[in-house]
Amino acid sequence: MGLRDFTVYDVIARNVRLYPQKEAWIYENRRYSFAEFGKGVDCLAYGLSKLGLKKGDRLGVLSQNCYEYVLLYGAAAKLGGIML
User: Fold this and answer.
1) Distances in Å between the alpha carbon of 31 and those of 23, 67, 76?
2) d(CA 59, CA 34)
3) DSSP readout, 31-58?
4) Sequential pLDDT tens for the chain (84 residues)
5) For residue 31, what are the contacts with CB-CB under 8 A and spacing of at least 6?
6) Is the CB of residue 12 less than 8 Å from the CB of residue 45?
7) Is the CB of residue 59 less than 8 Å from the CB of residue 53?
8) What is the CATH number of the domain that holds 79?
9) Range(s) of the domain holding residue 19
10) What is the DSSP letter of 66?
11) φ, ψ for residue 62 (rounded to 5)?
């Protein structure tokens, strides 16, 4: 399997599974493990799905660079949405 065979969410899920306690992100002096990151992505993906986001839908976001933006990107990827 080549890199093109994986989605962004595939990589997130793999890292959550293989390295749950390893540090995934540091933002504003707060450290997040892959397990915490994965849980945040999953919770946000659930909320977006309840709002009707599905594969192929576009999601427009205007945001500063922040941890929540990365969570949103992962959540959209999990659902097959496209971040704009």
Assistant:
1) 7, 10, 22
2) 24
3) EEEHHHHHHHHHHHHHHHHHTT--TT-E
4) 666 788 899 999 999 999 999 999 999 999 999 999 999 999 999 999 999 999 999 999 999 999 999 999 999 999 999 999
5) 23, 25
6) no
7) yes
8) 3.40.50.980
9) 3-83
10) -
11) -120, 110
Tell me which DSSP letter residue 83 carries.
E
Q: How many angstroms separate the most distant Cα atoms in the chain?
A: 37
At residue 72, the pLDDT reads 96
Nearest to 38 by CA among 2, 1, 74, 84: 74
Domain count, the chain: 1
With the CA atoms of 55, 59, 64 and 65 taken in that order, what torsion angle do they form, in degrees rounded to the nearest 10? 20
Instruction: State how far the Cα of 68 lies from the Cα of 45, in Å rounded to an integer.
Output: 12
- Check residue 5 and give its pLDDT: 81
Q: How many CB atoms lie within 10 A of CB 33?
A: 16
pTM, two decimals, is: 0.89
